[in-house]
Amino acid sequence: MGSAGNLSALVVAREVAKRKAGDAGRRSRFRIAVSTDAHSSIVNTMRILEMDPLTVATEDHRLTGAALRAAIEADGDPSSLAAVVATAGTTNAGIIDDLAGTAAVCRELGAWFHVDGAYGGAGLFAPSIRRAYDGIEQADSFIVDPHKWLFAPFDCAALIYRDPSLARSVHRQEASYLDVIHADPVEWNPTDYAYHLTRRARGLPLWFSLAVYGVRAYCDAIEAAISLARQAAAEIGTRDYLELIREPQLGVVLFRRKGWTPAQYTSWADRLLHDQVAFIPPTAWEGETVARFAFLHPRTPMDLVREILDRMS
């Protein structure tokens, strides 16, 4: 559902850019600035919207304001830039982009600032890493998938706009059979803020869990996952046959088994799943097959982590 949220938000970004450009906007093909680590749904969204990417080269896989500014200056066509997408916790590595720096560049350009927090946005609940999200409050739109790290049902996603009236002006659909839902102009209707109409109350289970357990339970659960990732990284560092690829920022840990081929990673993951120990499919990092922990459950024991690592020896 994060894909639907990204699409809905970037539709608004494109239409706002068209309005600003006037007649020229109706003839132009707009672009979105993205890093190479942006989620695949962003790439798909651009294809659907017939928009092009301005791909920003990043250092250490993190989009920064400086890198964005340099890419725009080198490109020389800032007027075609409708939006910039930053990521608050990449799916593959859990990296939080420079949100404050990116927001500053967007303000200078008058470009829409969208934050994809599908996986990592839930880290806002964790006081230990809250400062890493500085700048997110300047986003024009922001998504988070509660089904990833807030323990909600699978298709639950949230999309937040800085100015909901802009989204409503883009997404509201007019038809005689819809008059009944538009009868009260004061009433808030979610169909006015995304591309789709009919939907179930996906957010209700999340609201119910928050009401029952409170925000503190979510804070504790996410802090536990972050702590577990750091403990796993430290454990990897004690084993000479393993190598940590980067220190974890959220709940994702990337590491390699020295000397292994892609087939060996696959065999290891298949055995873990067959034995009902864990589901840990390999991933890729800079063209290399590697291993990846993605910690979500706050009660995952370190003994299980050690057993998984032992099976790589």
Provide structural commentary.
The chain is an alpha/beta fold and 313 residues long. Helices cover 39% and strands 16% of the residues. It contains 11 helices and 10 strands. It has helices at residues 2-21, 23-27, 40-48, 65-75, 99-109, 146-149, 164-171, 204-213, 215-237, 262-274, 302-310, and strands at 31-35, 52-56, 81-87, 112-117, 141-144, 158-161, 242-244, 252-257, 283-285, 288-294. The strands form 2 sheets. It has a 6-stranded mixed sheet, sandwiched between helices. The protein has a 4-stranded antiparallel sheet with strand order 7-8-10-9. Helix 3 links the parallel strand 1 (31-35) and strand 2.
Could you list the spans in which at least 5 consecutive residues all have pLDDT below 50?
none
Number of helices: 11
Radius of gyration: 21 Å
Q: What is the average of the pLDDT values?
A: 93
Distance between the termini: 38 Å
Secondary-structure element series: HHEHEHEHEEHEHHHEEHEEH
* Strands side by side in the biggest sheet: 2-1-3-4-5-6
Query: Approximately what portion of the residues adopt beta-strand conformation?
Result: 15-25%
The beta-strand count equals 10
Most strands sheet: 6 strands, mixed
